[in-house]
Amino acid sequence: MATIDAQKPDLPAPGSKSHPLYWKNRGFAHHFRNADEQFDACKLGMWLFLTTEVLLFAGIFCAYAIFRMLYPEAWTAGSHHLDWRFGGLNTIVLLFSSWTVASGVRAAQMGNNKALIRNLIITLICAALFVFIKLKFEYIPKLSMGKAPGTFFSYPYAHDPHEPLWWSIYYIGTGIHALHVFIGAGLLIWVLVRAIRYEAYGPTEYTMVETSALYWHLVDLVWIFLFPLLYLIH
Amino acid sequence: MTTANTAHELDHDHHDEGSYLTPRGGFGYTVWNWMTTVDHKKIGVMYLFAVLFMFFLGGVAALVVRLELLEPVRVAADGTITGQLFGDGESIATGNQIYNRVFTLHGAIMVFMFIIPSVPAALGNFFLPLMLGAKDVAFPRLNLFSWYIYVSGSIFGILSIILGGVDTGWTFYTPYSTTTDADHWRVLLMVLAAFVLGFSSILTGLNFIVTTHKLRAPGMGWFDMPLFIWAIYATSIIQVLATPVIGITLLLLIFERLFKVGIFDPGLGGDPVLYQHFFWFYSHPVVYVMILPGMGIISEMLSVHARKHIFGYRAIAFSSLGIAAVSFIVWGHHMFTAMGELASTIFSALTFLVAIPTAIKVFNWIATLYKGSIAINTPMLYTLSFLFLFSIGGLTGLPLGALATDLHLHDSYFVVAHFHYVMMGGTVIAFIGGLHHWWPKMFGRMYNEKAGMLGCVLVFLGFNLTFMTQFFLGTQGMPRRYASYVDEFTTLHVLSTWGSWLLLAGFLVHLFNFIHSLVAGPKAPPNPWGGLTLEWETESPPIEHNFHHEVLVKHGPYDFDTVVPPHCDEREYPLPENPAAH
Predict the structure, then answer these.
(1) Chain B neighbors of A60, CB-CB under 8 A
(2) pLDDT, tens digit (0-9, with 9 covering 90-100), for B404-431
(3) Do B259 and A150 touch (CB under 8 A)?
(4) pLDDT for residue A216
(5) Homologous superfamily, domain B39-537
(6) Which residues in chain B have Cβ-Cβ distances shorter than 8 Å to A48?
(7) What is the ipTM of this complex?
């Protein structure tokens, strides 16, 4: 299609089968020998990055363990304030979303773009649900009661003098986890937009779906650890 | 660009590409090109200039520290203060506080902004792909992102310094770091700087690991790689595993400051020693991030400039991994006075383990020299300096690791001398040697060999004068991070400060040598030293895609006894009047 601005290259319409982002038209970066090498490298890269994320959260878990050892009563008192049903619901939501995102990867591998889009949307709905449950039924009620981190703690009925410490670790752990939920959701939104607009993913081009799904699995895994430690152990 | 007057074997494309340095447009185009480049060579060069600038900044801070220590601070009976470089003349407290900020500056800049990125980000970025026969690192855009993260982190750090700097020491120990500086910004900015710089380190390490696994040239197995790659690989493993821990630690420190979460505050139930454990869990492995790449450079320079295959290739390769592994289990030796006896004993015993792979390397290097054809040039002089200085540094770690002697030497100048011998006498010496060794490849120019050797001698003498005296200061009881001292220590301190000026002279010689080389140095041939690793098979400086043809590896990186190094025929490349080549 010719345009008045003659310098702009003519790109086919997004979504057309001749668009460079359509999965059959995608090449691989010039410094790789072939597309397989690129896929392998990206997968290894994402696994390494997940390792760094695990180590980041490890610090938080370490702090949790140490202070639990030092102040078991404060830990028991703190976790009594949490409702395991909301935490459990969030766990189910995230586990389900891990299943749907993995199905999305499978859909991309099978060339089923509609299924990929469906699965990604469900995953993102789960992510939103997670954040909604967390905010509406956990954070906001607690913060309004004064169960806040650090210097903002003002809950008058705390039994144990070290309970604010438990709350700080609760907010740091779940807060940094929530940040990663947002990052993971951002990645999946990027994938979703590309899948819808350009059908960018298919059997020979699903690297981005795979690596984003891996990141999402990590987000789920961290929650699987946080949930019992914060909600279930008394 | 290669010399054009004789025919040579390098395949050529149908058009003459020029090198990666050749500008392809006007000034604006070139600036934008460098700012958005994903070429590992350009990114490496940008890192190089950045870390050299940081070295200069941190070095100036060091010179100021040594200047303050020329004279002990004394308050006369009538209240006049002598011997203080800064201060308000009223009390010594202000001057002491400024001193605390200057040495913190020196430490923070040198550790976070210079030495950790230095070899991996500058030389590693440039040479890892070349040595592997690859066109670039695995994730070139991530590489550029790492560079910009480094720039942002450094800007935070410099902002903190401009606002007045911090006096917590580069270690940010709690509770001082969580309570000082009531208006927050300076400490916060410096901690944020270190946090952000950590991500640059992680992503660079990640990039290098994937590149090593996936982008080796056909024919290059793991044990056909140059030892520099093994060193960078081991370094990258540490970077990927350890740096996230300092990330969360600094984040917790920020939360402690801003929200008083209480995790490090005993008044709220926390533990300041927990901070030290978290901090050193990263910061001990990071000192091996500092030294391992330097050791890799030494392996390369030794074999090339002694024209001999490396002795004990697999031993050195596995030792690099061994050092990386052991580095994670010895962090407590920075905290002997903060743990119980049992923990200290265990950490002390584990600390001695590190000496084993390290010594294996040193002995293998020395054995490499045996029956070699040793050239006397700047890289070789730096290599020999390294062997001597690093050995002293490593050996002086032992009395620090042994509990009985550490009791006396802890937090004294002995510690300062020890880590300067390993970090400066080790890493910086290896880095500067490597810079000379690879300068012709990176910039296509030869440096002046006589000036280089003069610089090396000045640096060697200056370094020893500055820091050997500090071992004696330490054993005699001078504590570290003190702005003043008793009269008995004056002579040693004066000698140490003179040494620092000699060091400065040596570095200035190198600076002018390098500038002159860039401006008016003779053009460098592809392989001035007769090396066998892949970077010497391409031009100096390399073309943008590194190699003209797909690289096929047919010989090992150190097969000097059987293989003629490429592009060393004098008929091909008539040598400039440079005594560099053999």
Answers:
(1) 248
(2) 999 999 999 999 999 999 999 999 999 9
(3) yes
(4) 97
(5) Cytochrome c oxidase-like, subunit I domain (1.20.210.10)
(6) 206, 209-210, 240
(7) 0.91
